[in-house]
Amino acid sequence: MTQGGAAAPLIDPFQRRISYLRVSVTDRCDFRCVYCMAEEMQFLPKAEILTYDELDRLCSAFIRLGVRKLRLTGGEPLVRRDIMGLIGSLGRHLTAGGLDELTLTTNGSQLARHAEGLAAAGVRRLNVSLDSLDAGRFAAITRRGKLDVVLDGIRAAAAAGLKIKLNVVALRGVNDDEFVAMIEWAHHAGHEVTFIETMPLGDIDGDRTDQYLPLSLVKAALGRRFTLEDSDHRTGGPARYYRVAETGGRIGFITPLTHNFCESCNRVRLTCTGTLYLCLGQDDSYDFRDLLRAGVDDQTLEAAIREAMTRKPKGHDFVIDRRHDRPAVARHMSVTGG
Ligand code: SAM
Ligand code: SF4
């Protein structure tokens, strides 16, 4: 509850301070990446999705309770109609000092037309997913994406002054021969690169054990080609960073499966239907949609957010191997948001 204008921070039962909210603004996407979605997806009816007013109200309540960083994701956040209205509106918290950072994870397909608007709303950095620099491969991985459109989007975002981090999902036998070239290309253009291990989220068409490539192997291979210097750069998340001496750029590795990062977890995730997931790899959740639609006041909403924090679990237990080839959690990454 707010006292004298400054609310007590959100602290979970394991004394972690929650300062980072990821919000999936839609479950829809114009791509069907092989590790993320099935070819045929059943998307949610509009009535189940929080309206922009509901999203804004909920995000603003989290910000009053000490969330300093907001990341919009999806699905593809930039395919939701009039999304720039929400982004512009949330940008007021940057100006007012309630928020340190407003950012997005995007597949880049709509970036060319939105780059200027994002910069104007106060967005300074973007994560853009890019798994290959080969047009044919890119089309095969995303099933629908066009590489040149995404590259145009990345150029437009850079021209608008946005810092770009490329998210590359490491896929065995699919893009693992490209990582050196991708790092050289990205660092030359001034972008960081983060490699991600595939996570067992939701049913896809196919077997995840075929795609899974431990980043320990990727790092070892890159270490034979580059000089990787330890970097003390930290984000409170699962990424570990290195400086590449030859390029002067930074690379990161997100290894939720092979490392335990849970003790420093500072984040929670809100789906587009108003369900708050307290951990990416567990099912503990709290529903805000009914509460919002019941017309509760801000005090009740804030009390509910505090109550939700008490459900944050200590950590996750993802496993991908031959004996555990079912998803650890049934929902797709496009539902929870990456
Ligand atoms: N559509 C946007 C995009 O692709 O950047 C935002 C949503 S997407 C779900 C967020 C991130 O999650 C992307 O970088 C994507 O590569 C990653 N991702 C999706 N499914 C994944 C999985 N099963 N394992 C690991 N990363 C995954
Ligand atoms: Fe869409 Fe992103 Fe999932 Fe690819 S990873 S299908 S772009 S939500």
| CATH topology type | TIM Barrel
Spatial strand order of the main sheet? 9-10-11-8-7-6-5-4-3-12-13-14
Counting H and I runs of at least 4 residues, what is the number of helices? Answer: 12
Strands, count: 14
Rounded mean pLDDT is 90
CATH class: Alpha Beta
Describe this structure in words.
The chain is α/β, with parallel strands linked by helices and 338 residues long. The protein is built from twelve helices and 14 strands. It has one domain: Aldolase class I (TIM Barrel, Alpha-Beta Barrel), CATH 3.20.20. Helix content is 30%, strand content 18%. A twelve-stranded mixed beta sheet has the order 9-10-11-8-7-6-5-4-3-12-13-14. Strand 9 and strand 10 form a beta hairpin. Helix 1 runs parallel beside helix 2 and helix 4 runs parallel beside helix 6. The longest helix has 13 residues. About 2% of the residues have low confidence. It binds S-adenosylmethionine and iron/sulfur cluster.
